[in-house]
């Protein structure tokens, strides 16, 4: 149980320092934060008593007493993430360090009904019970959907893939008894990818799912634009007058590079498509055409943003490195400025990226507001 006794003004500064370092010593904290040794000692003791920091071990001695090392306790608090798609529900539990503790995935068609939200809430309770997590250790529930929202993370402004409206947020609250907010699925996945990046450089993430989204990670911030519509890469026009997109326009990236372009051959099973790909000439021709269009989209992103590109979503997660190399070669042919395409890479998360990213909102808030 976390002890919520009053904290000193620099309590949070020391906690964030330890969090960002991974592990550290009192001497390093004092030197880097410009604090006296007694001040650091007192605050460290308080952080340990409240359950936020633990002693991790000792450094090798160069003479005298060994120095203790400290790290943030991974199990001090937790957050839950839900990723709602048209045909699946993904539920994850994430610890204070942003590590995936447990997850469940269910094949269930989305319905904007009380019965669906009750089912989702029951899966949260089941996940917490199976991991013996007390409810007072849950910071909140982030709910990822393929929608656009206002800044309040409650008001839906665009929803074509799943049918929700401005009453959805409140109706969910009848069943989920934790703080909760709604998030765009691609932005959430981008945040999950950023969380494990050591670099703070700008990167763009393109989510190749049944509908295509994206995220722009600028340093440590998600760039969402003036109307929270930034990085909707699926609606870049790459073939004027081409295939009709679900948005009603023609020639969008989504019409050529969505997951369903491939998984439509295997009854919606994208893993099966990639398993059969080496042995099926028809699939190979389809996928080569798919990569041609993906290269057009990725080259547009590279020219516009001049930064690393992360290929994610269900297609990115299942696309082996050999196919990334093919994509790189296609990009080299398109880009007038570069003779390599090392800026593009496959996502780190094979599953659960959007659910994890939605939960990380609460972890990030916890750290910042400590």
Provide an overview of this structure.
This protein has 370 residues and is an alpha/beta fold. The chain has 13 helices and 14 strands. It has a 5-stranded mixed β-sheet, sandwiched between helices. Strands 12-11-10-13-14 form a 5-stranded mixed β-sheet, with helices on both faces. Strands 1-2 form a two-stranded antiparallel ribbon. Helix 6 (185-195) crosses helix 13 (353-368) and helix 10 (281-305) packs across helix 12. The two termini are 17 Å apart.
Number of domains: 3
Count of individual beta strands: 14
- Which CATH architecture of the largest domain is right? 2-Layer Sandwich
CATH third-level topology of the largest domain = Nucleotidyltransferase, domain 5
Order of helices and strands: HHHEEEEEHEEEHEHEEEHHHHEHHEH
Spatial sequence of strands, sheet with the most strands: 5-4-3-6-9
CATH homology superfamily of the largest domain: ATPase, nucleotide binding domain
Distance between the termini: 17 Å
Secondary structure category: alpha/beta
Low-confidence runs of at least 5 consecutive residues: 1-6
Cα Rg: 23 Å
Protein traits:
370 residues, alpha/beta, Arc Repressor Mutant, subunit A, Nucleotidyltransferase, domain 5, 3 domains, 5-stranded mixed sheet, 14 strands, globular
């Amino acid at each position: 149980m976390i002890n919520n006794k009053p904290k000193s003004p620099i309590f949070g500064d020391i906690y964030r320092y330890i969090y960002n370092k991974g592990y550290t010593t009192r001497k390093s904290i004092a030197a880097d934060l410009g604090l006296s040794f007694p001040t650091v000692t007192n605050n460290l003791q308080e952080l340990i008593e409240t359950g936020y920091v633990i002693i991790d071990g000792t450094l090798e001695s160069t003479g005298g007493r060994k120095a203790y090392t400290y790290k943030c306790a991974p199990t001090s608090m937790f957050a839950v993430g839900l990723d709602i798609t048209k045909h699946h529900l993904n539920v994850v539990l994430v610890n204070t360090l942003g590590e995936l503790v447990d997850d469940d995935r269910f094949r269930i068609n989305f319905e904007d009904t009380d019965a669906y939200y009750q089912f989702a809430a029951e899966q949260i309770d089941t996940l917490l019970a199976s991991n013996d997590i007390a409810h007072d250790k849950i910071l909140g529930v982030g709910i990822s959907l393929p929608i656009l929202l206002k800044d309040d993370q409650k008001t839906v402004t665009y929803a074509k893939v799943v049918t929700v409206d401005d009453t959805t947020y409140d109706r969910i609250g009848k069943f989920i008894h934790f703080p909760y907010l709604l998030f765009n699925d691609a932005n959430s996945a981008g945040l999950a990818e950023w969380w494990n990046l050591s670099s703070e450089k700008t990167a763009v993430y393109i989510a190749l799912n049944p509908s295509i989204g994206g995220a722009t990670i600028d340093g440590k911030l998600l760039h969402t634009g003036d109307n929270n519509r930034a990085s909707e890469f699926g609606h870049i026009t790459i073939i004027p007058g081409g295939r009709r997109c679900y948005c009603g326009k023609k020639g969008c990236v989504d019409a050529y590079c969505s997951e369903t372009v491939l998984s439509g051959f295997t009854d919606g099973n994208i893993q099966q498509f990639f398993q059969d790909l080496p042995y099926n000439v028809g699939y190979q021709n389809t996928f080569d055409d798919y990569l041609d269009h993906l290269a057009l989209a990725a080259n547009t992103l590279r020219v516009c943003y001049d930064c690393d590109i992360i290929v994610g979503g269900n297609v990115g997660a299942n696309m082996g490195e050999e196919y990334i190399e093919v994509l790189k070669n296609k990009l080299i042919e398109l880009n007038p400025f570069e003779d390599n395409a090392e800026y593009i890479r496959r996502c780190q998360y094979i599953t659960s990226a959007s659910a994890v990213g939605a939960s990380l909102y609460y972890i990030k808030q916890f750290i910042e507001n400590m």
